[in-house]
Amino acid sequence: MNETTLDQVLTQYHEANQDIVNVDEATVKLVIFELGTEWFAINGERIREILAQAEVFFVPGSPASLEGVINVRGDIESVIRLHEMLHLPEQKIKPGSSILLGRGGNMSSGIRVDRVIDVIDLPESTIQPPPGTLPEHMHAKVLGVLRFKDKPVAVLDLDQIFSDYARGLG
Amino acid sequence: MGNRNSLESLAIVQFSICGWQAGIEAQHVRDSHAQPKSDQPEVMSKLLGFTGQHPNPDKFPQYLTLKHKSSGNQEVEVDGPTELLHLPVATIHPLPPLLAARTQLLGLRALALTDSKLTLLFEIS
User: Fold this and answer.
1) Hey, are the CB atoms on A61 and B111 less than 8 Å from each other?
2) Angstrom distances, CA of residue B74 to CA of B20, B30, B62
3) How far apart are CA B5 and CA B13, in angstroms?
4) Is the CB of B101 less than 8 angstroms away from the CB of A60?
């Protein structure tokens, strides 16, 4: 009689496991935030830090959208506001606002946001291509859109945002 | 003026412009004086593009003689007091890229942060 050995059982187990295909969907980390009444997101890989409190030093001769500079543990970073670039009504800095330290287009800068909504991993499939109804000025700046907590969220292209900003387009 | 730059510090002549603290490398300054030597000294705030900024009502003018490689000496009016300082190199930072791209100030090259005080560092060409 051919008896089954433990080795055979374990070998079969391991072989079966090798056939298992990882069907987990790729996810993307997003930092979702509010500007005015609109919600936006930036890929989490592009956000180095989220600062709730930082002393901002105004630098004369800067455009109104450049709030100033901050000292981040010995490094100086600019802080910009995206309201003008995104055609949102300009607002005063709200309590609870934060500064996202972002990287894009080989540049880094702080971005003032009114509120951080969430930092979350979402399946990539939840991000849809930008719709044709997106306003003209947003076309180049939006990588995609999604719905989060029943609100539309535009995922911003930080490379494009920083490059446009440096060229004076915002 | 002193020219005692080292790896640890940078000698600057510090002054005010429209209420802002500013400085230029001391090696580019020949002297500082209270009375103008020339008939019409240049005004530093205009040279550096401070147009439209509010002047400082408490200012008192001081005059710097700047060394220029090409054009010799140039006298400029600044807001006093003027000081010769040695800024620790660790407090001096290049301009962040977006600020460098968008500033309207002419010759702004770096920022110094000391004791929560910002100093604008200029290079006069």
Assistant:
1) no
2) 22, 9, 14
3) 12
4) no
The tens-digit pLDDT sequence of chain A (170 residues) is: 567 778 777 887 777 666 666 667 899 999 999 999 999 999 999 999 999 989 999 999 999 999 999 999 989 999 999 999 999 987 788 888 999 999 998 999 999 999 999 999 999 999 999 998 888 889 899 999 999 999 999 999 999 999 999 999 86
Dihedral sign, CA of B45, B43, B121, A160? positive
Q: Would you list which residues of chain B are within 8 Å, Cβ to Cβ, of chain A?
A: 18, 20, 49-50, 53, 90, 93-99, 101-105, 108, 111, 113, 116, 118, 120
Interchain proximity A77–B96, CB inside 8 Å:
yes
| pTM, rounded to two decimals | 0.85
Nearest-by-Cβ selection for B111 from A69, A74, A107 = A69
> What is the ipTM score, two decimals?
0.86
CB contact under 8 A, A59 and B98: no
Q: CA of B78: how far to CAs of A163, B15, B38, B67, in Å?
A: 36, 7, 14, 16
- What's the longest Cα–Cα distance across chain B? 40
